[in-house]
Amino acid sequence: MATLEAFKTDEKAWWCPGCGDFGVLSALQKALADLDLEPEKVALVAGIGCSGKIGNYINSYNLHVTHGRTLPAALGVKLANPSLTVIAAGGDGDAFAIGMSHFAHAVRRNPDITYIVMDNHIYGLTKGQNSPTSDPGAKSKATPWGNVEQPVRPLSLALSAGATFVAQGFSGNPRQLTAIIEEAIRHKGFSYVNAISPCVTFNRVNTYDFYRKSLVNLEEDPEYRTNDRAWALRKLLETDELVTGIIYRDDETLSFEERLPGFLEAKPAAQRTLEELEAEKARVRQLIESYR
Ligand SMILES: Cc1ncc(C[n+]2csc(CCOP(=O)(O)OP(=O)(O)O)c2C)c(N)n1
Ligand code: SF4
What we know:
Layout: H1 21-34, E1 42-46, E2 61-64, H2 70-80, E3 85-91, H3 92-98, H4 100-109, E4 113-119, E5 122-123, E6 129-130, H5 154-160, E7 165-170, H6 174-186, E8 191-196, H7 208-214, E9 216-217, H8 229-239, E10 243-249, H9 256-259, H10 274-290
Parallel strand pairs: 1-2, 1-3, 3-4, 4-8, 7-8, 9-10
Antiparallel strand pairs: 5-6, 7-10
């Protein structure tokens, strides 16, 4: 039985004291332990950003990839070894600026990956420029007259792109965030968790206090249900996405792996011998030659 300790590393967390990423880290570690997973059965793929450091603090396989490329790398890991629990994690800049197209395509493919975006509405690592989720009018050194762009709305975007699991948690409410992450990992398909994670150093507007006052727990809505995409979209529009809880889930749609013909019956790449992999390499070379 895995313990919480099993998912910790010796490395001291580098984040500023009070950073929301601490809450996301402990929620994820607790979820992995609660689900009784073993560290060697978990692969964490993280992008560049303060949030991307999360992989250094979780004892599991850890791939720290180039900025914005968490999802294609995570898909590669999942396809090479579908027996692994694959978690992708990163910031809102990583996900919705440079990584935007990967997000839309991952959603529509529905691989069995959990994607946690630590959303602080800012670029933390590069010292406080606006990100695609920054509020209209938000001031930063790069936008001294205020943000003139409309923000990306991650939850509505995921829902309208066909996501099969969409949720939002808050690092100031680790109990709910842990429960959401557990369900996201249990979900067989692409699960999107927007984890509101305040940047205490560069974002003085989207603070813990702001969220404590503004967030509405959708699960307490008398009309709450998780199987109605249109209801979920309407709620998100009405509340400006200031909600928490599991917003939508569809456990019927098959995952990408389940829909790939013959894929699940074949031996995973991770378990093939060098000779078998060499033979495959030769087949790929032949294919490339055939296009010349
Ligand atoms: C290809 C590339 N472009 C830009 C950068 C610079 N860069 C590093 S982190 C980052 C954004 C960080 O913001 P976010 O993803 O929201 O993460 P946070 O630091 O807020 O957790 C940028 C633009 C980079 N490392 N690589
Ligand atoms: S700069 Fe912001 S996001 Fe980065 S560690 Fe500090 S508080 Fe966290």
